[in-house]
Design goal:
Nucleotidyltransferase, domain 5; 3 domains; five-stranded mixed β-sheet; 16 strands; 30% strand; globular; Type IV pilus assembly protein PilM; PilM
């Protein structure tokens, strides 16, 4: 089973969150600071060769292992326990209602029995786990349980990558749940803890934008759109005749010709703002909700100059670029000036690292 519970014991040994995405691997290690606070001890990233990970699937295990080993050496961490993430699209989740008062082994039997109704694969082909959410709305005699299932080979690919890098995978989480855990810390810092606020999160990745809308910490809407930062890289390739890898590197460093901002970047920003606006309109027309109170941008594209202002102008919603480390102390190995521009890309890795603290 996917282990959601193994870190809830004593000690909270050092653990790092590892986010394997299409374009890079990101790592975050957190420590405790006081009773309820956290300290960012280390964070780092390592680019992946193009095609090593496609649509969340590990296509070249060796390349990913090599990148993770480089990342670990670069980060300077001594942590060997890791929390890994599974892409949301690779995991089937379902809320089910079961009788209250069952023992753990009885719950497992009931969950497996229920799972066969919702999973389109043989149960011996999946990794299956569950988490008790709490009392069900139907009454005190029932509980609500979240069922999670993923194809076993997809889970084993990520486990094999960690183990081949000398690491011990201890927790496997769902990337969207990890992002939500990191977001919850930020919304808790809003006035009145964000109570009653409808919060939208747009994670603009390399190929896909993940959209989540939450009310009082509960997800009320989720969607993916095929739009991401690789479109900007492809435009750089087309306009300047660079290889894809060179275009990606120069996009990150800002080493591009004078006309880049007007000819390439601005059209991409306009497209990004349009995607956000369309997604919000679709949310309004497909749900009972007619407002969003706070919008957060995350992912590597979130810090592109001009995007925040453009999205704010188009949507007329209070909008911020999210830093999952907001309100945390910073360890001696962390450079604050560098963190400011890189933090929005570490939302999932930060949420995974928070699993150290249950």
């Amino acid at each position: 089973m996917i282990d959601f519970k193994s870190l809830l014991g004593q000690g909270n040994p050092p653990l790092a969150g590892v986010d394997i995405s299409t374009s890079s691997i990101r790592m975050v290690e957190l420590g405790q600071a006081g009773k309820d606070g956290y300290r960012l001890e280390r964070y780092a990233s390592e680019a992946l060769p193009r095609g090593a990970v496609v649509d969340g699937n590990i296509e070249n295990l060796e390349q990913v292992v090599d990148a993770l080993r480089r990342l670990w050496k670069k980060s300077g961490t001594r942590a060997r326990l890791v929390a890994l993430g599974m892409p949301s699209a690779a995991v089937i989740t379902k809320k089910i209602v079961l009788p209250a008062g069952l023992e753990e082994d009885q719950l497992e039997v009931q969950v497996e029995s229920e799972a066969s109704q919702y999973i389109p694969f043989a149960l011996d082909e999946v990794s299956l786990d569950f988490d008790v959410i709490g009392p069900a709305a139907s009454g005190p005699e029932d509980i609500e349980v979240m069922l999670a299932a993923a194809r076993r080979e997809k889970v084993e690919d990520r486990v094999a990558i960690a183990e081949a890098s000398g690491l011990k995978p201890t927790v496997m989480d769902i990337e969207s749940y990890a992002a939500r855990a990191a977001l919850d810390r930020i919304t808790a810092q809003l006035p009145e803890g964000g109570a009653g606020q409808i919060v939208a999160l747009f994670q603009i990745g390399a190929q896909v934008t993940q959209i989540s809308v939450l009310l009082d910490g509960v997800t009320v809407y989720e969607r993916e759109q095929p739009f991401g930062g690789q479109l900007l890289t492809q435009e750089i390739v087309r306009n300047y005749g660079l290889s894809f890898d060179e275009a990606e590197a120069r996009k990150r460093s800002g080493d591009l010709p004078d006309g880049y901002h007007v000819d390439v970047l601005m059209p991409f920003l306009e497209s990004a703002a349009m995607e956000v606006t369309r997604a919000i309109q679709f949310f309004y027309t497909s749900t009972p909700y007619t407002r969003i109170d706070q919008l957060y941008l995350a992912g590597g594209c979130a810090v592109l100059p001009g995007l925040l202002e453009l999205v704010t102008s188009r949507t007329r919603i209070a909008c911020n670029v999210i830093s999952p480390f907001q309100g945390m102390q910073l360890g001696s190995a962390v450079r604050e000036s560098q963190l400011r521009s890189e933090a929005p890309a570490y939302l999932v890795a930060c949420g995974l690292a928070l699993r150290r603290f249950g």
